[in-house]
Every structure is written in C-alpha cells, then in structure tokens.
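Lab meeting minutes (informal)
Scribe: AK
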Amino acid sequence: MPTDPVLVVHGGAWAMPDDMVEAHIQGARNALQAGWRVLDGGGSALDAVEEAVVIMEDDDTFDAGRGSFLNREGRVQLDALIMDGATLRAGGVGCVEHLLNPVRAARKILSESPHVYFVGEGAEKFAAEHGIPLCKNEDLIIPREMERLRKYQQEIARAGRSDDSSSQAGKELFAPEISHDTVGAVGLDRDGNIAAATSTGGTLNKAPGRLGDSSLIGCGCYADNLSAAASTTGWGEPIMKLVLAKWTADRIAAGNLPEWAAQEAMNHLKQRLDGHGGIIVLNRDGQIGIAHNTPRMAWAYRTVKKQEAGIERNAL
C-alpha cells in the first residue's frame, strides 16, 4: 500500500539575528520545494533529501557549500553525509575543499562504493572519478565570510586569547550567537522508506582538519526504517559525544513519538554536556519532530495535506 510522502528540512539552529530570518525561511522553502518535487513524482526519499540539501549548499545564506564559514587558515572545508533507511547504506565526506556540493559526492559513495567514508583528497579523487567536477576553494569563499573571520581573529588577538578549543575563547567559538547554519533533510517516500542527509561548513575559525558531527553516522545524521531518520545542527562536539541522532532514533524504536524524542534529545544535549543545537526527526508513519534549545532554528516541512515553514518552534 503506497505511503503518503513527508519531507522536513532544517537550515541551522542559533541566535539568528532579525535581519537574517527571511533569508533562512525562504532558503528552507526553496529546499523543501526541490525535495518535494522528487517525492511528489514518486521518487525515493534518498533522492529527495539529496536534492533538498543541494539547494541549501548552493544558497550562501547557510553554512554549507558556497558561503560556508572559513577555518583558521581562511579556507572552506566541508563535511556531508547521506543515509538510506531501507538498507543502512551511507556515504560521507569530510574536510573536502574542492566540491561545490559535498552531498553529491556522499551520494556517489553510498551508491557506488563498498566504503562509507572518504576524507580530504581521497574524497575529492573519488568524486572526480565518478563524474563530479572539482572547483577551486576560492569558488566557495564569499566576502561576508572573509570579513567575519577577520573580525573574529582580531577580537582574539586584541584580547590576547588563545583560539584553542579547550580555552574560554574556544568555548565562545561554539556559542549560539555565532551561526550554526548546518543544513539537513529527512524524508519519507511512497514506498515507505526513509532517508536523511546533513551538510556543513563547520564552525568559524575551526582548526584545519576538524570534523564535526554532521558527516558522522549516528551523530549528525542517521536513518533506519526500523526507527527513524534524523538530522542535527548545532555545536558538533557534544552532539558527537552523545551520538545524538542515533540516540533519538533508538527512543523512537522503543515506541516514543518523534515529537517527544526530539525534545528529549535537546534536553539530553543541554543537561549532559551543556550543548546546544537542533534536530529534525521523521518515522515511517510520517510523524515528525522538530526541536531546538537555541533562540531560533530554520525549518520547513511538507505533507500531502500541509506545508509550513518558520524559524521559531519548540524553543526551550
């Protein structure tokens, strides 16, 4: 029996300023529209979440693809993961510097490699060998982010602080006042299969080679038809330590509703490690959960009966 499709997307959870709200809502809507076209045409959840994330990677509003935060050396390094709930196959890339759409490379890994994860030059070589063109790192950099990095590094130098992540300055780097525009999508198709994808440029002024949660299975992204599909955003280190996407899916497998599990995930993140972020969750019954413990989170969802997009929802 065919299943009614569902799609949920997010575009970051942080203390988003008022003048950026509309761009985030519109970006989420554009991603939702692209993914929904796939589902409405009978396509797979895997294809739908890929297409939704590509739209946000191409939109320099978000910290994914072009327009991402710059690392300490002024370069863009990108991470992405996509996962199929029907087969548990996944593909991920980390620390890539020459891909406009890392989620495309992640999808190629899922579909055409016995491996799950490639990083750096190896990921880029795999992508090129499978028909994905490489770009210059400069193609991913925009003036806004050059200025943001310059100001942040000036503040560190003026205060005589270290930028090491164990220092107070390092902790401030992950504060919700500094953008966490990681993007993601979860989808359910007419065949009853679910999928998830997450993509990010990481954090501002991060150390070269730093990986966050977004591209790691069970941390920033997870999908299993027996539980749920989930995509997270926010401060990656605490999310990794809690394997938060899998933690949330396990609670849904145990019989909890996605809405409850999403809220509990944010409570767990805050109470256990004083972490902050957001999550979107979807099960095979088409039930969704959207939650965050930051001031704002960009999100949108669509079912055959309803479409909605916004910034503030379930703020704790």
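Next up, CB showed the second protein from the same session:
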Amino acid sequence: MAIGMKKYARLLEKPYAAYTFAACSAVVLFMLLSNLDVINGWISGLGKLLSPVFTGIAVAYLFNPLSDFFERKWLKKIKKDTARHLWAVILTIVILVLALTLLLVSLIPSVIKSVSTLVDNWDSYTAKIEQLIQQLSAFLVAHDINFDLSSIEDFVDNSMQKLISLVKDNVKPILSTLGSVGTSVSNFGIGVLFGFCFLIAKSGLLRLIAALRAALIRKERIERHNELFERCHSVFIRYVGCTLLDALIVGFATLVFLLVMRMPYAPLIAMLVAITNIIPTFGPMIGSAFGIFFLVLEKPLNALLFFIFICILQSLDGMVIKPRLFKGSLGIPGVWTLVLIVLGGKIAGMAGIILAIPAAAILVILYHETVAPRLKKRAAKINDALPEEAPAEDARELST
C-alpha cells in the first residue's frame, strides 16, 4: 500500500500531471455546464423524493422543545427514560391535534361564511366601484384631465363573467395545479408522520450521530461544535416561537377590534392579518391591504377606521410587543433586513422570506465564532512576518 502511494505521489510530481488534471477539470466543467437542465431535473426529482424526509426532520426539530418540556416538567415521575420520552411525544401529538382542531372548528365556518357573503354581494360591490369610477371620470373631465377609465369600468362590470370564462378556459391547468397541491399536502402529511417517528427514535438517532462524530472529529472540536450549535439553536427557536406568538397576538387583537366595531368578515380578515404578520416587513402591509379591500367594498368608513387601527397596532407591535418578545436584536442590522428578505425569497420562496432573518443571524454567529478568529490569527501572522519599520531619523535620511 505504501509503495503504491509513493508511486502515485511521484506520478503527481511529473510536469504533465498538472496539465492533465487541468484538462480533465475543464472537460468535467464543460459537461456540467452543458447539461445544467438535466442536472437541475435530477436535483429537483431528488428533492421531491426526499421532501417528506426533510419535512420530518423540520417537524421533529420544531416540536422537540415541547416534547422535552413535557418530559422534564410533567412526566418526571416516570422513572423509565424510554417510557417517559414516548409519553412526552404522545402528549405533544395530542396537544397539536387539539390545537389544530380547535383552530379549524372556530375559524373554518366563519371564513366560509365570510367568503360566501363576499361572493353573494359581489354585484353590489361592483356597482359601487362602477359608481366611484364614474364620479372619478366626471371629476377628471371637469378639470380637463385626459385619462380614459372606460377599460377599468368594463373590467369591473364583467369581472365575474370574465372570472367564470377564465376558469372554463383553463380547466386543465387548474386541475393540474390542484393535483400538485394535493401531492404537496400528502407529502407534508407523510413528512409530519416521519417527524414524529424521528422524535420517538430521537435517542437512537442522537447516539448514532454522536458515534459518527466521534469517529470523524476530535473531542475538543466536538465540544466547540456543540456550544456553537446550542447558540444557533437558541436563536432559531426563539425567533420562530416569538414570531408565531406575535402573529397570534396581532391576529387576536384584530379579531377583537372587528367584532367590537361589528365589522363584516372579522374572522377572515383577522386570519389573513395573523398569517401575513409572520412574513417580516412586507407581511403586515399585505394583510392590512386585504382587510381594507374587503371593508371598503362594504362601507368605506369601516375601511378608514380599520386602517387607523392597524397603523396603531403595527406601531405598538414594532415598538413594544416585538422588542419584549425577542428581548433585543438578533444581530442583524436593520438596513440589511430588506436585502435578506429579497434574497431569501429568490432562493427558497416563501420559506426563504420567513427564515431569511434567523438564517442570517446564525451565519453572523458562525462568522464571529469560526471565520473572525482565523482572520485575526492570519493578520497577526502576516504582521509578525513583516520587517519592523525604519526609525523616523533613518526615514528622513533616506528622503534627503
């Protein structure tokens, strides 16, 4: 074996070895670039195949803190570790099912009623919009402003008919989209099942990972990696938990306001505001725009009151609620937030938008813990290798 390695080392020292390696690398790179579509298809297919596994890992990771809480606080009297862990996972599943059932039972009928009311009153809404367009057109004519609103009026007048014809003309794409949505939902359900299976088998999986790490990494590095992982884990879990709690608070406050003011579509608007509030920066504006649109069709005064309320609520959320929940900054400068959201959306869609900020916070931690010390060490090494600067008198002599 040693003789073979020596021969291989001597072969690499030959002059033509570098040229051969460069030529082979160029050929491989050309083949990769010329078959990007095929490679992208393979990667996409592999991603779809493994998506339930990735979903399961995410579910197990997100619900592990709740399971650990039950295991430490509520089930500590059970002496056997495996039984205590199993009952903690079962209790986590029960709590999740009860929460989803309560949410669906309380929201779905109200949302369906709101949507049906919106559809039933669509003709009156379009009539009001047409009246507003006509008033606006008369105002523009009275002030000699040339702006044709007839196309907008025609679109509003025939909006429902155009929507029906659009659905009829695109039956196959719509059915295909519904099929892909159904596939995604089924994959997500399988992923959730995998997640709880991973959660039940957590001890065995952690032992396997620990054995692999012990075989590949030195002990001191493992300890340093564990500390780093704990910091990243705390940042991510705190961000996700506080974001969901903040969305729940904002949605509940919106629901209470709409019910007290007896405004229509209260559950639908509150649900949209709560869901979109999860999206940083742009989310609150999107949810507020939907609410204002629904209310202005019914009564413009309600839309104005809702707009004033949502501005006050979002100001309180940004200045009081979120600082209390997050307890300080995640280490991301405010000016970079918009850039991170855009990049996250380009890379991973809606999930990238939601997770861009915690991912960047984790990258900042990794930079300060791993990259920055190496850069400082490298700079110190370079500075120590440089010759000392000449004294000031020698420098003056050289200049003369």
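CB comment: The chain has a mean pLDDT of 76.
No objections, moving on.
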